[in-house]
Write a structure and sequence with these properties.
six-stranded antiparallel beta sheet; globular; two-stranded antiparallel sheet; alpha+beta
């Protein structure tokens, strides 16, 4: 960053670090021990779909890559805001394999030049018992290189207390987004 940028208050954007995704399986151990939250075997990548042959080719490459892992069921959906969600689900939970698949989606889109279109990646967690049905998504913000918890409840409400507990529990495991205003809700996400 140059002198003029500093004088005018411009900052350089944080470079994404996709390797943060590989820290989620160890963070899952912390979530299990501290809050009884277990991975659901579902995760998704959200991005603003681009038009044209290159975008279609990237989506085709992603599907071909993920089809190599028979344990992943992959679907592509578009929400009402124009974002595309590539969702991966596992019948038998293998969080390391899921995270590897999500990383491959992000890396493929980035390598194809669609990195600026990536919004977030989310990995689902929930309590294993039906009498305490809490669910959480660990959301990786691509443009910030940070993670935050999103804990939806019924009626488009959030369990803010649970989100703060998760932040406290995972501070040593993941780069948690410090700006709470960036903890945006992802109501229509196919996960958690």
């Amino acid at each position: 960053m140059g002198f003029l940028d500093a004088l005018l208050g411009r900052t350089e954007p944080v470079q994404p670090n996709l390797d943060v995704l590989f820290a989620i399986p160890s963070a899952a151990c912390t979530l299990q021990a501290a809050l009884d939250l277990a991975p659901t075997g579902a995760g998704a990548v959200c991005f603003k779909a681009a038009e044209g042959a290159a975008a279609a080719e990237s989506e085709s490459d992603i599907r071909a890559l993920l089809d190599l892992d028979a344990s992943l069921e992959v679907s592509v959906d578009r929400d009402e805001f124009g974002f595309t969600w590539i969702t991966c689900r596992q019948s038998t939970v293998d969080l390391a394999a899921l995270v590897t698949g999500l990383h491959a989606i992000n890396a493929t889109l980035t390598d194809a030049g669609f990195g600026p279109c990536l919004l977030c990646t989310v990995v689902g967690f929930r309590t294993p018992t039906a009498d305490d049905p809490r669910r959480v998504g660990l959301v990786y913000l691509f443009k910030r290189g940070t993670v935050y918890p999103f804990a939806p409840t019924d009626g488009r409400k959030r369990d803010n207390a649970l989100e703060i507990q998760i932040r406290a529990a995972l501070t040593d495991d993941l780069p948690i987004e410090a700006d709470l205003e960036r903890w945006f809700p992802i109501w229509n996400a196919p996960v958690p």
